[in-house]
Amino acid sequence: MTSSDEASEPLVHIKNFKMDFGDKTVIRDLSFDVRAGETFGFLGSNGSGKTTTLRALLGIHRPTGGVLHIGGRNFEPRDGSRLGYLPEERGLYKKEKVLDVMVYFGRLKGLAKTHARAWSLNYLERVGLTDKAAVRLDKLSSGQQQKIQLGVTIMNNPELLILDEPTKGFDPVNRRLLMDIIEENKEAGATVIMVTHQMEEVERLCDRVILLKDGVSRAYGTVEEVQEQFGGTTYRVAYKGTLPRSRLYDLIHEGNGHAELSPRPGADEATVLEELVRAGVAVRSFTTARVSLDEIFVQVYGEQHEIAEV
Amino acid sequence: MARRTFGQHNLGTVIGFEFTRTIKRRGFVIATLAIPVIIGIVFLLIYVSNSTSAANANAQRNASIRFTYTDASGIIPDQMAALIGGSKAQDPQAALNNVKEGRSEAYFAYPANPAKEPVKVYGIDKGIFENGKYEAVAKQLLERAAQARIDAPQLAAAMSGGVKFESEAFKDGRVSGGIGSVIPPLLFLVIFYISIILLSGQMLNSTLEEKENRVTEMILTTLNPTTLIVGKIVSLFLVGLVQMAVFLTPFALGYAFFRDRVALPNVDFSSLTFDAGRMVVGGLLLLGGFTLFTGTLVAIGAIMPTAKEAGTVFGPLMALIFIPFYAVSLIISDPSALIVQVFTYFPLSAPVTAMLRNGFGTLNPVEAVIVIAELFITGALVLRLAVHFFRYGSIEYGRKLSIAGTFRRRESAGR
């Protein structure tokens, strides 16, 4: 793994990644890069291959084909002292005491015992679990265990932080705490790869994203680029009357006097509004908006849900 | 920052963590301490019983019984019988009736030829242990009478079996150690059995724990799986040493301070012969066998999703270390027999068979080298397989691993 100041080379490089499990192909052909210092959103519906990709990247799964590099080479466990990985399948040694487990993982990640202990106690104080240091993990609530696991993930100040559905199981208060911690790591120069279904978090935190569907990338780039790719700007209209068919826009949806229009090339706010007025529509409000990632997600994955329902 | 260099050696950390958490576990402490406590209680009961028995024996020795006897052989001198409370009866049936009706304590009927016919002993019932004194007195009287007739202490001793024998056997021109040379190398077999019996369950569960706790991914991205598994094996071995030390403590204390009272045999260690070659072979067979069985158990743990399912494979595997005992007489007397050769070279039965043969001196150096090499090589291969299965199998949370599947996926071009 290279240091974060070597920004010219991507920290994570995945090229022509293919993954089969028996006869089933999970990833067909996936390529993307994650640059050092950026926060990268890894998006996709359940079963689209996100976790499989992360596991292959970290050497847990053997890929069927392709290149998966971190810092220019395959990941090895000895690089773990620079990695923070919060897996989707959460778990620690449940019958051990909180502090013992944290110190153990700290030592495995290269920290001295005293340092690991001091860091752990500070962290427990921050997340309100000071009194749980000597308590067995299985005596904690699910949310408290999540906090401990997050602490274990970040205790080595990782250069690369990989979080697979980090907010799963967190209440809104703890979700905010988690986001604060992610932002702190980001500000400290960490590269963050985040798998999540919380699209507002992606829009707020991520520099770039990739959307995975059926084992291939459906969209890849900055959040703005992806929004542009899936319709870019839309017009939200409140009206009375009947919306006419037009060559200037596509109707995304309408109902109860509200509609969302997607302008076609060459059309702008003025021409669309003029078209509506000319058609006798009583326009109450007319606002410009970007297509949200949430809508893009529904647009991309809704198709397969509809097919599944049929 | 207090951070170590890359390629850090985490083996010590793993051993420390695994060892500490095992011996601190309440269940382990209770189970381990229960054995010496039970042994201590048994010793205490034996101590108390032996004290009572000794007092009873003294009382019996000093007590005398009144008895009548008839002597068709003519061996028993009347005066000798009278000295220990006997009086000669004229009518056997009347003497027997007197006993039955409680008028006489005992009646002994010595036949015409005691070498061919039994001496019949009748007495009033005084309980299982007390009743034994009738026969003891009858026997004592007959022996004393015989000795008096022979009138030669040496012949009397030879007749009564009170003669010591000292044997020496020679091998390669030197005195062979006999049973004293068999015991030391067989101690490795005892250690092997104890360690497998005590630790096999923990070995099986050691990697299942990562799987059942969903901690595999955290571990595999932090630690080389070989380091984890070797660390677990070493820590289990240390745990086994602690258990053995705890178990042996009451024996050591009992032997040192209460040997006579708790009926421990008075072992003469000077009679033991330590043959350097056989001891080295025994030690290597122990290490090789331990490695092979540990690797096998860890591999089973990595393949199976739960401890319950792993248990179905565990039983037959354990049977393999006991199977050689079905052929133990052949192993000792006819090492060239086909079944012995099969047991000697089949990896999972090899440790026990080879250690037995080594103990009894029937494992020649060539065979020893072959078996030791086989155990270490297969042990290393099985350990590698165990690491492989853990590496690619423990991520199969809740599912049984497809062994072929772990080998089918080819390495990518970039790897």
Q: What's a quick, concise take on this entry?
A:
Chain A contains nine helices and 13 strands. Chain A is of the alpha/beta class and 310 residues long.
Notable characteristics:
heterodimer; A: 310 residues; alpha/beta; Rossmann fold; 2 domains; six-stranded mixed beta sheet; four-stranded antiparallel beta sheet; elongated; disordered N terminus; B: 415 residues; mainly alpha; D-Maltodextrin-Binding Protein, domain 2; four-stranded mixed beta sheet; two-stranded antiparallel ribbon; 65% helix
Question: Explain this structure to me?
Answer:
The complex is a heterodimer of chains A (310) and B (415). In chain A, helix 2 (98-108) crosses helix 3. Chain A has helices at residues 50-57, 98-108, 113-126, 142-154, 172-187, 199-205, 223-229, 269-278, 293-309, and strands at residues 10-21, 24-35, 39-44, 65-70, 83-86, 160-164, 191-195, 208-213, 216-222, 233-240, 249-255, 258-263, 282-290. With 310 residues, chain A is of the alpha/beta class. Residues 2-7 and 305-310 of chain A have low confidence and may be disordered. Chain A has two domains: 10-226, Rossmann fold; 233-290, no CATH class. By secondary structure, chain B is mainly α. In chain B, helix 7 runs antiparallel to helix 14 (350-359). In chain B, the strands form two sheets. A four-stranded mixed beta sheet of chain B has the order 2-1-3-4, with helices on both faces. A two-stranded antiparallel sheet of chain B has the order 5-6. Residues 1-8 and 410-415 of chain B have low confidence and may be disordered. Chain A binds chain B through residues 15, 18, 20-22, 55, 58-69, 74-75, 77-81, 83, 85, 87, 89-96, 100, 104-105, 107-112, 114-115, 149, 152, 156-157, and chain B through 1-8, 10, 13-14, 17, 21, 25, 209, 213-215, 217-218, 220-225, 392, 395, 397, 402, 405, 409-415.
